[in-house]
Structure formats: C-alpha cells, structure tokens
C-alpha cells in the first residue's frame, strides 16, 4: 500500500508545528555560537592543564599531531584557574542542553528535505549539518556521562572527547560561516519590524510568495529578505496546526530549562553554601560528614586498592630520586623537614571543586634539593594506588618551583585521612585534581 506523500517526513506537510521558523532557529543558533565557542576554548585549556607534553603518562590522547599546536606550559597563577575554566566548561555544557535540543528540533525538517543535494554549496551544508548533529550529540552525551556517572561509555573518554570536539567544532565553524550571516540578518530584520518574539500565530515567518514580504520598488533581492524567505520555505509549516504556545513562550521555556540546570549544577564549582543548590551534580550538596577532612573526594582509598599495611607510619617510606642520589624517608623524617602551608582548592575534570583547603607539608622544591637538584625541575610522582588512571603523573618545573606546591601531610590542621591521600599527597595550585597525586610513594626529579 502506498503511503500518502504528506505522511512522509520528506513532505513539508508532515511537519505541522507553527513554532518553527527562521527567527526561532536564528535566536537559538546565535546562543549556541557563543556558548559552544566558550566550551571549546575551555576544553582545550583543560587538555593543556594536564601537561601532555611531559609524556605518555599524562597524555591520554596520543597521536594528536597538529591538534596540539596550541599547547603551553600550564601556569600556577591564578591558583583557582583550573577551578574556573573547568567549572565554566562543565556548567555551560549542562546549561546548553535545552538550547541544543531545541535547536535540533527546530531544524529537523531540513534533515529530511528532498532532493538531498541541490548544489555543491547545499551538499557542503548538508555534510556540516550531519557532522554537527552527530558530533553535538556525541560530545554532550559523553560529557554528561563523564560528569554524572564517571564515564560509563565504551572506550577512553579522553581521546574520544578530544578528537570528537575537534571534528564537531570544525563542522560548527564551517556551518557558522554559512549560516551566521543569515541568522544575524533574520534577527535584525525581526527586531526592526518589532516582532522578534512574536506569538506563533502572527505570520511573521512567511514563505517567499506571501504578500507581506513582497519587495519594495527598486529593492534588491537581498534587501527584500529573499535569504530569509528561502529559509522560511524550509522551516515554516505549510499546513500548521493551531498554536498551543507562542514563540516567545517557547523561547522562555528553553531559557527556563537552561536556568534550572544552571541553578542545580553550578554550585558544585562555586562552593560554599552554593553547593547545597547543586542538586543535579554528583558532587553537589553539602560537604560530606564533618571534621578537617570533610570535603569531596573522587577516588576513595578502598577504590584505589590502598591497604593499611602499605600506609602505616612505621612502614611507609618516601623515595626521592635525583641525578646523583636516592633518598628514602620515613613519615617522621618528612615531618621533621621545614613545613609550610598553602590554601588551595581541589578542582576536577568533572567540573566539581572544593573550597580552599588549608594544606601543610614540605615544599616540592625542597624535596628536589634533597634529591640533589640545584633548581626546580620536572618531577615524576608515583602512587601506591594499584589500578586506574593517573596512578603516576608528571609535574612541570614551574609547578615544582611554586612555593605553594607541597607534599602535604596535613589538611585543615589534622593528618590527611586515607581517602584524602594519607600518608602524603601532592597539592599544586591551578592543577587538575588527578595531578594532585594521593598516597605518594616515589618522586623522581628530572627527566629519566
């Protein structure tokens, strides 16, 4: 039995919503233009913060080639830098989900339009749309899974998200070059007419042959709004249903969804009393428990395979390796070295962070000197952790040299708890949390 053409997605009559139109799509597109660009830049900064140039142990995205052209030595000032950039990256990504879904909904008729290719320019646009839709869904989905579920997804999050981001953003830039001029003209035209947020039953989005859109005498095709009209042909329903909500209401609904996600997520990065508002964030809510060690952890001692036998004060040893000698110290001997304090947060790739915690321990640069290094150099830090990523990590010389970089023995006036890295852990200003290695057992100064 033959299906009537109007019942096929390729038929303009199949799509009946009166909300679709160039104005609705253009507003959402311009919001995504700014938001996705900020997300991409902060994502690249997050990758740079891992110091991938120091070696494969830090680099979870091998064979990046030219994609790593921008990498630089990650600074230690301001000390809250990673907390800010990654907090913005994750919070903005969650906040933009309603905008992304609304944008995809608004242009879905174009995905089924026939003929599939009308010209070379049209073919290029279709390819960018395919990459945009697929890449956008992939990047947002893997990002949310990493934040909410510690990444339950086939393959390694780091390379998939990194390469996917480059592919998605390349398509995004190409699509923006093709569509942003039209989106800007559409919004400007609607604002000039005073109907940017007109209700859905106001015929502001018309096909080209609508009488109200006929050009004035002597007007050029572009001045007459023909690009906008062609866009309307593809997006405006030819047989619209009766509206149940205005376009203004639809845009406010999208904005309300985004604001709700912002309000229930951002607190995990802001900290303090704001953390209680982060109801949808896995590390939101109030600080767990009470006492000096009552702040968030990502990996517990039990998860990392840390045993009491390996961390007892009378058996644990810190091994310092340098160019000319190796030194082994007990915890009592480490405690006997000059002790310094630093107030630093822990900030994680998942977007959560702690408020400033008061750490106390030995400066990394003093440990480098003890191992025979006359000046601060790169250091390779090894943990007692038995499995999982970042059991070992490299830190740059500028991180070792910073006087706030410590091998901490205490936090908030008490010994570290097992979950926070007892008997000793690294804390470095502005470094991702996974580079603040816990349960440290060996430090090798200088490149091996």
TrEMBL record:
Pfam families for this protein: Oxidored_molyb
Listed InterPro entries: Mopterin_OxRdtase_euk, OxRdtase_Mopterin-bd_dom, OxRdtase_Mopterin-bd_sf
Presence of the UniProt keyword Transmembrane in the record: yes
Domain of life of the source: Bacteria
Compositionally biased tracts (Basic and acidic residues): 203-212
Residue span of region Disordered: 198-229
Location of the Oxidoreductase molybdopterin-binding domain: 312-445
Alphabetically ordered keywords of this record: Membrane, Transmembrane, Transmembrane helix
CDD domains named among the record's database cross-references: SO_family_Moco
Classification via SUPFAM superfamilies: Oxidoreductase molybdopterin-binding domain
UniProt key word Transmembrane: yes
Membrane-spanning segments: 27-50, 88-108, 129-149, 161-182
PANTHER family in the cross-refs: BLL0505 PROTEIN (PTHR43032:SF2), PROTEIN-METHIONINE-SULFOXIDE REDUCTASE (PTHR43032)
Annotated protein name in UniProt: Molybdopterin-dependent oxidoreductase
